[in-house]
């Protein structure tokens, strides 16, 4: 199966898909229609069901698995799924809901093991103990949450996977620039987005919580680091302050949410790797939907850029994996 | 005594003054000179001592009281004190150091009483208890610190005095717009700048601390509110989150240090009153140094504006008080 | 009656309402529909009448009173009235058009009396005479016009009511900061938006006039003050220049229409109080439509912010009054 | 004589010059020095007189004519005159002060005649009468004032000369784009900077007046056009409003002082020609001081650009005329 | 014939028109409709054909000539043609397709002759030879291309016509400011937009090419000038560098595509004339569609300004010519 | 030897140093002084020689080797060398000039070998041949030039060393994100700053050339790639266009000199790695001069940030190597 996210304009689709969200609207002729976002493990796509019946409305709800058939069209520069036929999957269909959920290419166990290895490499005891404590406190959510509500790594275990990719890059950076303090860098990477566990409502149908709206994940995490360090009797340690600063400054400038810019090397590297990994994730997904020699749909999270796929780029391997990275689950 | 801050260009001065800071420089002829900031309770002024001797350097140090005589000149649009003669005050001079320290027009006791009254008016028990606890924890510094290192209310008890002025305005605002929640507004005002107690190094020769440089007073206070609320078992209360938001948003926009804008009425009013009281303090001080019918020196904290003093403005009352506000100490 | 502006999503409505504006559109099925803005004295709401007949078009015109029944829905984050049934009110319906017009909570007489009192307090004869002359020249429009076409205080006598609220706040400010010149401040407040009487087309269906489009209310008022002062032989008085400056600078910065920033205290205070009163009016109206514990619709005039209503905010009193302020008409 | 403004770095000077301004400073060795701006009719240059005596201070005052000898040096990218010898000119020196004043290349009579011709070409009676009345009211100052305090056309009759150059360009533009309304365009050009007659203090030692500081020349002129039109009973004419708009919008955007952008063709052309003529004046003067194949000093009024003079540019003709334009006085 | 671009809201139309583009859409009732852009030599207008049949879809294609009848309406502030009846033109209709194509008012021969004359006036041999070579290399496209895909001079020979207008203005500028180097100025004007021949896909249905998207016309032309100069053995000539700089800087600032601002007079004039000619073209077209005393539709390319047409502007001559300029073809 | 760049405030120095630049100034007492920039292979530092004699002026010239003794002081937040004694080195001093020149930690041969290896890994023949040809054409300068006149990698072979560091990081990135096209990425890195060979005047006393000022290194390289590709008959290859785009976009946004943002993955990565390597070089050098627990001097190239060096950072290893990277010369 190719994956719904990677079909290109004009292609025909007949796939089992999971309904992610449904919104009811009224057309200008007064009749109701449904805007259905359909997903499989490759990503999601929007579709419209015009002139829907009350039966349709009760059938096609968030979480339902359907068999849909139709064509990929382009609407205002974005792909849309024009449904020709749709029906609920039933017991005769050999499809499992869990197979349609978008998830990181590494299992939770693999991610946990990888991050734990990096944790072992942290030598400074204050940094090690604090990071370990925070990771333990939020263990379950940390390995399940997406990294963002919609922009990048928005899939099951997206946050932990994003952290893993950044840690691997960090290791390469530290090798090239040996004066880098790996303790700070690894811990900063592990903690930088942990505030999202309180900012976002959950793993699916992710929205912003009240603390998310009023404080944002950065301030939430400043508070959280302070509290846990306080409980461990380490509130006055410089290391705690440095980690709080790394979280505070990782968006680099005030307009993007960081009241302070990075003020030491490791904070700067954290920002650069966060930015690079997010961009690689976004770009790879956009390019996968684009034919060689063509421009992608406009990508809002990249300042509305439309990306070019070189005409000599090989197109064959796309379907084999939904993920850009080589860090894959071998277990 | 007129007050060193309120002399105008061309006036002659002969006053006891306290040395606030001294910096040694080397002139382009290779000789040393001292840049001395002199103060009395009205404010401060910069002066230069050219061709200083080693004796001068050991005499004129921060904290020394001197008798200086000279003229007020204008240098690059700012007043400067051109010293003709200067000597250390000795036991024969009837001047006390404490009389030369710039301080709020209300005593610490009066400020404490006033703020305590407002605290009593807070009815919501979570807000009341949390605000009271934070005030108690930082009691001594809260009533001694300036409100800023250099921009506004930079004098003994400046922070508490700034809070008092804002509370009085808040009462008037709440009377005019009755849907305002006074509990949130009063508590937000009391707490909004409390993070400065950790951001700034102290009451005199104020500089930025390491937490001040790496986090800033806003993030410091988010952390502090969180910790104290946690210790009181109120971490999950919505009121705590709202107070954290008020602190977070009180500079209104990211460029000025607030990652979130005010998201409810009381947060917005807090921002407006903070801004207005700071501006009134800055403007009044600039106008005091200006003759009717003339423009003031440029004021950096007001986007470098040069303020006009109307020609029909009365000039007589300036000397009577160094302070703009009617809230004066009657005790 | 609750007031159409204060219904929340999901509530049922059956009320007499006044048609404010009607626009005819063509749906994508080629059929006509009407976009009707309905109002009562609490505010207004948009509704759609799909598949309208020629008879509907001739019945439902601006100024007609109707009895409408339906539900409040949310469309793109804003409330909309989904009409189920609608009919013209006739002589059997006990409803008066004047009861459905949105107006200030104070009568014109009360507003006039209040402003006249402040005018009496102005001691400077140039300021007093000029302000009185301008007020007299535009007397009728001044007490009837809204303060803006759509953003804030957009109701009958909105401009005069906005001025009254600002004058009351100004009195409190002047009490706290006694060096403020009340003559300038009161006169500046009375005159600051008077140019809107020429910028806007009228009390209802308010649009921009040719002078409004080509000059704007600020430049219109610079011209108007100059002309009237000239006719009174006071053209060369500094007071006239200061009042012109207060009008010129009251939007504070070039992007918002003020080529000069406020250059004296009273001009700065005028700007702050104008801003605060407008924001309070906008915020109060947005919060009234929002349930405790929820976020309001996005408010364009507040940089698209969505405001939070604390969950412990009382909701009961909203219906009693459509106005945020305590300045109410006791006559 | 070459003209002091057109000497290049390294050249030797021995010329009669007029002292434009003198400022006294104190060097870091405590000794006084004078900063003297020297001018002739080509422009001006800054010089320093180190270690000046009291006699120097009383001799070298604004308005004095001196014979100075020295070298042109470059200081922070700008030319400076390093004085070797300087003395007051006396009766034996055959030099007249009037020959050293920088002035337009056309006499006042020639400028008046030229502008009067354009005035005759205006056919619309409202525009003609109003422009004529305003020109008559300010006749003397209009033909003597500079166009700006320091940026461009800052010489005797600079304003009128700037207007003449723009009128000639306007004629060419109108020929190419025949739908342009010449009445509006010519009148707009004549009036656009007339407010500077009240904004600036006078022809020499030009500074900003109180109306200049508080309103600026644009708002001053809105007021002035309104008043004169009112006195002529034409206050309600659309033509008056259009001319006020042209003045209001001629700086094009709010940051540069125009609250409204140009809203009709003639207002747009006025802006473009004003901008082009000012830039040509500034650029020509900067290039005159620069050798072919080199870059000029940085020009603040051109966003600090440093201009290149092509190496194949002829250098010989510079001395013949201090002015860029072909509009020269043949009388 | 009036020209489809110059009809005003409310007017009735019955004209032969050429279909420029057709887009198929699906209405919210599920039925197809066509968005047809119709043109004649005056310009173009959008129309909708609701409920189109398969026959309609095969008839009304890009390039077809139709006879359409209907009314001009206003939709979101822009004119739209509401079609009542439409049919394909056949052999009985006396209309030629070439008469419906929008083109410059000068023939290709006339444009060529005019530009060749200016080329003769260039005296510097390097500039002359290089400009001539580039013009010869791209001769056919240069005289056929539009000056932009949609913003200004978007018609047959639009680029060459834009160049001609600029050359005529340049001649007037050079006369007024005699130090201008006409060789550089004329050559810069001829070459400034030549990169558009590679940036845009062609004369009709103009879109961006791959080099257009990845480099843009400015960088394309830097490359092209370099290559041709290299082939002519003039790569190291300063003149070549100056012409490359003129192309590079003609959009004036980085945000608009020029990494360097104009650094000599001729580069600055090139920018100003380019800007003025484009604006005149855009403004004249917008005003032609507007009645005297009214505001035009909003013009995106002018920062969304809505232009005013003075009420005393004559309306009669509009129909006679679709072009703003006096440079018309007399041959 | 510690290296002049890594002394900290208050330390005493007695070292052989090379004079990099000398500027003569006149102090405000009228006496001459020299501003001498002294360097060794660790970097450079500014010093002042007050009251210099004519003999000093002829001795201390650019390129001379001296023995200087004095103290490190801080002036306006930057280190300065206060010279106590200075004399020219003579034949008795065992110091070689070449030992005092700041250079990359890898020899030219080592850099060449490393880059040649990466060149071998490029498989696409167009990209390989073009890159090889450009590298060959500029071989000598490419391995000698600094990467910038003053900001980062401003030392002998700085450009080639910067390219090597980026290539190593690129290899790590490509391993993590396997869809990256290494051919484009490696070639883009090698070529991205090659235009600096024409933009900058040379290896020492580096200034901007005429092409550097008028076009900048980005446009110079667009031209250069185009020319060489043309000569090789590959002008129309898509690969050439993609490499030109990578050069064009590598500063990411218009304000920083890139008219187009990166439009494919490899262009984006090039920008990120360029930015990261430059920042690491700048930061490491600033931190080396700073004591643990203190803030560095303000760094202009980092938006004037002052960097913090954690108090637990080891300080001992700094002197062993002047370079941040592990890529060191083992030959």
UniProtKB/TrEMBL annotation, chains A, B, C, D, E, F:
GO biological process: rRNA 3'-end processing
Pfam families attached to this UniProt entry: HD
PANTHER family xrefs: 3'-5' EXORIBONUCLEASE YHAM
The keyword Hydrolase is assigned to this record: yes
Spans annotated as Disordered: 311-331
Keyword annotations: Exonuclease, Hydrolase, Nuclease
Name of the gene: yhaM
NCBIfam families: PRK13480.1
Statement: the UniProt record of this protein carries the keyword Nuclease: yes
Species: Sporolactobacillus putidus
Stretches assigned to the HD domain: 162-279
Upper lineage: Bacteria, Bacillati, Bacillota, Bacilli, Bacillales
GO molecular function: exonuclease activity
Name of the molecule in the record: 3'-5' exoribonuclease YhaM
């Amino acid at each position: 199966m190719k994956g719904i996210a990677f079909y290109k304009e004009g292609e025909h689709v007949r796939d089992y898909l999971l309904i992610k969200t449904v919104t009811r609207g009224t057309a200008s002729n007064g009749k109701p229609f449904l805007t259905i976002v359909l997903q499989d493990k490759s990503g999601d796509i929007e579709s419209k069901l015009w002139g829907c019946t009350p039966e349709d409305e009760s059938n096609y709800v968030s979480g339902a698995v359907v068999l849909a058939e139709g064509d990929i069209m382009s609407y205002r520069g974005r792909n849309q799924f024009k449904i020709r036929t749709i029906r609920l999957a039933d017991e005769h269909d050999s499809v499992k809901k869990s197979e349609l959920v978008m998830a990181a290419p590494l299992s939770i166990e693999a991610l946990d093991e990888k991050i734990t290895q990096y944790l072992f490499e942290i030598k400074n005891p204050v940094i090690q103990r604090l990071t370990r404590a925070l990771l333990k406190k939020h263990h379950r959510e940390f390995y399940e949450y997406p990294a963002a509500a919609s922009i990048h790594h928005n899939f099951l275990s997206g946050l932990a996977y994003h952290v893993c990719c950044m840690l691997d890059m960090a290791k390469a950076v530290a090798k090239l620039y040996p004066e880098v303090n790996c303790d700070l860098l690894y811990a900063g990477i592990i903690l930088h987005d942990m505030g999202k566990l309180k900012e976002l409502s959950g793993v699916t149908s992710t929205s912003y919580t009240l603390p998310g709206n009023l404080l944002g994940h950065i301030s939430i995490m400043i508070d959280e680091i302070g509290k846990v360090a306080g409980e461990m009797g380490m509130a006055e340690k410089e290391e705690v302050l440095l980690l709080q600063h790394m979280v505070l400054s990782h968006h680099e400038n005030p307009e993007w949410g960081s009241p302070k810019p990075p003020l030491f090397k490791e904070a700067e590297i954290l920002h650069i790797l966060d930015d690079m990994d997010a961009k690689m994730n976004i770009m790879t997904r956009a390019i996968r939907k684009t034919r060689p020699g063509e421009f992608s749909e406009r990508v809002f999270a990249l300042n509305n850029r439309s990306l070019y796929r070189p005409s000599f780029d090989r197109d064959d391997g796309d379907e084999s994996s939904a993920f850009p990275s080589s860090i894959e689950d071998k277990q």
